[in-house]
């Protein structure tokens, strides 16, 4: 039994040893694996950027020296209290935050994240704490990882500052968009309205932005390709901003908007609308104004050409083309400024210059001129003068105006010549002239004016007033007191614009005729003409006229006396001839009877001439009687008296009396004699078969008597002397009447009644005499 027991025990011992060996080997293998794992974990932990610290439930700390260095400790802190005291190595704020966070994690298991900084260090540590895992065998403890977050913290701070800046900028931009007076909006990638500002809400007459977005109220009318979404779709798809002018109704008014759509990075689009209604109206007005201005420039006589900032011709009027002989087809191609000058030179419409390129370069500088309009005078070949005005335009370009001053230059030259001629003439006139201004000062005078008054040049050069001049020349007059008339004359001419004239005598016996004439410019012209010789001639002519009048009176008296004296023997001759014809001295032979008839005829003619002579002299002093005279009766009586003579000569006498003849106030006898004399003159100048017409008519104011014949007519010389007394007018008609007073007697009677008499005659056609009498002379 003992052996069995010993064997059992030995077997148990061997079994236990084997188990023990197996367990040892297994533990050894596990220890080796754990060592390897530990080494790997330790290597990983060493290579990790994070450092770990374990805080036990009782506040003890487990950490390595590198972490203690990071925390600003030269020694190894043993407990949580060491981290919170003043010598913890951390900044006071950092230490408090870390201790409070760890304490909260120990008590409530609350994880934390915080940033700590060692005192005097630029590094920041990012601490992440949480409950310690069970593997650490620290129940209730906290595992804290520390990361070097210096770079991250700076970047976070930078990003935070940038984010704050962006947030402020975004808020400012949002405020700006909201306060913008123009409608602005944002569309998402589906082109739906996602945001609008207050101006947009007011423009579409909505309550608020939410209503606009909910109802998708569009600002601009229209759909399809011309609608507001079309421009936004193009901007979204092409990535290019779009601008379009679209009409819209805002506050009940039709407005024109310029809509801008801009693509955004998120696939949406932003837009805003500018009210350009006033701008479009102003542009339309500007366009119409420019068209009206160009139409007006086209009607100017001066040539006008406008060049754009690129120096091309953009406008010209017709006178420009005519002045420089340029065809419209060539000008329509908008030639450049230099080409236009070259074409002007080819047409010889530019001044002749030696250095044409330099001259052209100077004119090219007109586009950049800053002193305003530039003016030049161009003297062209052929005598043409052009006034050239170059005006740089504010928006760039140049406006040229070409005014043809040829006629003005010629007129100015002629005017200068006329002024020189006038000055020379004025200074060499025989008449003394002086021009006085409105204030009475002497302005202009000629040499004769200085000589007449005996004035010196120094006195005249001082332009004396007319009062001083009158006082200076008073002693030169025969009556010094009349010198006061000179200022009065000038005053009448300058102030009252009235002309005055008169005469005065000088102390030396000369006589002058003066006149003050108002001039168009307000001045007065004083003229003085020496009439000493004409005055003497006038006196001589007056004396001669008186002598002639006396001789005429003697002649008239002599003619009247002779006429009366001739009538007595003429009566005796007529009486004896009639006795012989009656046979008182016996029966006459045929020749004796013919001689007796000739004597009686001559006596009759001589008696008529004597009667006419007596009438001519008597009517000069006999007044005209005033009575109502029927012109029909006068004409009939005169025609009846002349009819016998007309029948004897074989002449037809016709009488036409119109109902308008009427009556007039006058002397019936003298009017009848005047008509009779005209009939006698007409009948006496005709041969057998002739015709005489007496015509009478009139109107309410005047009466007319016409005597015409178809005789041989009168020469121009005879017509000129027809109404002269004792002119041999009859001899120019038929040669039978060597002397006739018919026409002078008729004229005398007509003029005594205030009428006129006119004679018209043509050789081979006849003669017409017209009497025009007023109804009431």
From TrEMBL:
It is an enzyme of class 2 (transferase). The keyword Transferase applies. GO terms for molecular function: kinase activity. It catalyses: ATP + protein L-histidine = ADP + protein N-phospho-L-histidine. Keywords: Kinase, Phosphoprotein, Transferase, Two-component regulatory system. Residues 561-777 form the Histidine kinase domain. CDD domains: HisKA (cd00082). It comes from the Bacteria. It holds the Pfam family HATPase_c. Its EC number is 2.7.13.3. This is histidine kinase.
């Amino acid at each position: 039994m003992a052996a069995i027991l010993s064997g059992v025990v030995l077997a148990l011992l061997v079994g236990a040893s084997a188990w023990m060996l197996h367990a040892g080997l297994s533990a050894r293998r596990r220890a080796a694996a754990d060592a390897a794992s530990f080494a790997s974990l330790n290597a990983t932990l060493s290579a990790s950027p994070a450092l770990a610290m374990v805080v036990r439930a009782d506040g003890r700390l487990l950490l390595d020296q590198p972490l203690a260095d990071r925390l600003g400790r030269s020694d190894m802190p043993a407990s949580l209290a060491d981290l919170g005291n003043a010598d913890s190595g951390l900044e006071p704020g950092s230490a408090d935050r870390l201790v409070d966070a760890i304490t909260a994690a120990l008590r409530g298991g609350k994880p934390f994240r915080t940033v700590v900084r060692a005192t005097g260090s630029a590094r920041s540590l990012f601490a992440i704490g949480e409950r310690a895992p069970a593997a650490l065998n620290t129940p209730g403890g906290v595992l804290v990882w520390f990361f070097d977050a210096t770079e991250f913290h700076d970047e976070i701070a930078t990003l935070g500052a940038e984010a704050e800046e962006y947030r402020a900028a975004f808020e400012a931009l949002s405020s700006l968009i909201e306060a913008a007076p123009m409608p602005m909006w944002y569309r998402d990638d589906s082109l739906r309205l996602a945001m609008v500002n207050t101006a947009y809400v007011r423009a579409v007459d909505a309550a608020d932005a939410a209503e606009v977005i909910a109802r998708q109220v569009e600002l601009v009318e229209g759909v399809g390709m011309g609608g507001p979404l079309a421009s936004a779709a193009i901007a979204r798809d092409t990535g290019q901003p779009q601008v379009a002018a679209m009409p819209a109704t805002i506050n009940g008014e039709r407005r024109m908007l310029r809509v801008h759509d801009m693509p955004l990075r998120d696939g949406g689009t932003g837009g805003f609308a500018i009210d350009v209604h006033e701008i479009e109206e102003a542009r339309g007005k500007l366009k119409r104004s420019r068209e009206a201005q160009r139409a007006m420039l086209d009607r100017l006589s001066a040539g006008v050409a406008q060049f754009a900032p690129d120096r091309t011709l953009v406008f010209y009027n017709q006178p420009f083309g005519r002045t420089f002989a340029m065809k419209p087809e060539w000008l329509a191609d908008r030639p450049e400024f230099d080409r236009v000058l070259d074409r002007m030179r080819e047409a010889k419409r530019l001044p002749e210059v030696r250095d044409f390129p330099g001259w052209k370069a100077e004119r090219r500088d007109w586009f950049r001129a800053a002193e305003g309009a530039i003016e030049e005078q161009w003297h062209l070949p052929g005598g043409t003068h052009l006034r050239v005005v170059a005006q740089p335009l504010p928006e760039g370009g140049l406006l040229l105006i070409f005014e043809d001053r040829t006629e003005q230059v010629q007129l100015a030259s002629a005017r200068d010549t006329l002024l020189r001629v006038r000055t020379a003439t004025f200074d060499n006139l025989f008449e003394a002239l002086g021009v006085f201004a409105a204030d009475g000062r002497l302005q202009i005078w000629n040499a004769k004016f200085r000589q007449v008054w005996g004035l010196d040049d120094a006195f005249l050069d001082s332009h004396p007033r007319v009062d001083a001049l009158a006082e200076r020349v008073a002693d030169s007059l025969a009556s010094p007191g009349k010198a006061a008339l000179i200022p009065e004359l000038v005053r009448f001419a300058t102030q009252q614009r009235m002309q005055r004239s008169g005469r005065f005598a000088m102390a030396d016996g000369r006589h002058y005729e003066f006149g003050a004439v108002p001039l168009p410019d307000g001045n007065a012209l004083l003229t003085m003409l020496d009439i000493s010789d004409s005055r003497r001639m006038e006196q001589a002519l007056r004396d001669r006229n008186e002598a002639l009048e006396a001789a005429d009176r003697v002649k008239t008296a002599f003619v009247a006396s002779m006429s009366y004296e001739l009538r007595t023997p003429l009566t005796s001759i007529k009486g004896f001839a009639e006795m012989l014809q009656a046979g008182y001295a016996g029966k006459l032979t045929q020749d004796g009877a013919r001689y007796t008839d000739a004597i009686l005829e001559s006596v009759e003619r001589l008696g008529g001439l004597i009667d006419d002579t007596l009438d001519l002299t008597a009517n000069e002093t006999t007044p005209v009687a005033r009575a109502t005279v029927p012109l029909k009766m006068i004409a009939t009586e005169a025609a009846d008296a002349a009819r016998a003579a007309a029948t004897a000569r074989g002449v037809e006498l016709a009488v036409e009396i119109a109902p308008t003849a009427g009556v007039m106030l006058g002397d019936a006898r003298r009017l009848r004699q005047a008509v009779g004399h005209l009939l006698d003159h007409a009948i006496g100048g005709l041969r057998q078969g002739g015709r005489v017409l007496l015509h009478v008519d009139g109107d309410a104011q005047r009466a007319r008597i016409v005597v015409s014949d178809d005789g041989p007519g009168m020469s121009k010389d005879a017509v000129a002397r027809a109404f002269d007394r004792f002119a041999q007018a009859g001899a120019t008609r038929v040669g039978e009447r060597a002397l006739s007073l018919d026409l002078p007697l008729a004229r005398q009677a007509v003029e005594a009644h205030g009428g006129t008499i006119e004679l018209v005659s043509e050789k081979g056609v006849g003669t017409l005499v017209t009497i025009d009498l007023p109804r009431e002379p």
